[in-house]
Amino acid sequence: MMRCASIWFSLFFLAPSAFAQSSETSQSSDDAVRAVVAELFDAMRAGDSTRVRNVFHEDARLHSSILRSGAPMVVGGESADGFVSAVGRPHTEVWDERVGEIHIQIDGGLAAAWMYYSFYLDDNFSHCGVNAIQLVNTEGGWKMLNIVDTRRSDCE
What we know:
This protein is α+β, with helices and mostly antiparallel strands. The chain is 38% helix and 42% strand.
């Protein structure tokens, strides 16, 4: 009987603290993933290729699906290094990617971030779409492994 009581005690009083720790860990991972996403866009606005490179895993890839009225969708991809170089090349306009609410899903060392965005060159609208970003948790923290985005101009 005493053993049964200790099992019930564990289930009702200790188990919630285990879930609370899991929830706290989940929240800190969620915050860390959000921080990496924010760092990418802050570094793009600053034109800082070193900061941009730091958010990517060494094997990272980027893909875009471009939607134009009356034309078939075009899909293209490149390594993160090509994108990093483009950000670091001198350009007169600020690359300003403005994102909406970021939806995060995490399972262990894999995370996915999904968000709508609008892209501006300085204050001039260029295009909009969705970013779907996959991240992996490495010894150096969360790193972007893959970005797939849509690009379109009809953003209502």
